[in-house]
Amino acid sequence: MARLMKRDYCVKSGGLVVAIWSLAGPALADLFEQALSRVSGL
């Protein structure tokens, strides 16, 4: 029973990570590109 609960928790956590990443990914990529252009002076 404990094994099943732990597995369910991992699946839910993984789904949450994917959801957050899909929402925040484009914003983080844009932020990263801006930081690179400031550092490289382009």
What is the fold's blueprint, element by element?
Layout: H1 2-40
Keywords:
single chain; 42 residues; mainly alpha; 1 helix; 0% strand
Give a written overview of the molecule.
- By secondary structure, the chain is mostly helical.
- It contains one helix and no strands.
- The radius of gyration is 17 Å and the shape is rod-shaped.
- The N and C termini lie far apart (57 Å).
- The model has no long low-confidence stretch (mean pLDDT 82).
Give a concise summary.
Helix content is 93%, strand content 0%. The chain is built from 1 helix and no strands.
- Helix tally equals 1
Query: What structural class do you assign from the helix and strand content?
Result: mainly alpha
Give the mean pLDDT. Answer: 82
**What does the largest sheet look like?**
none
**Residue runs with pLDDT of under 50 for 5 or more positions:** none
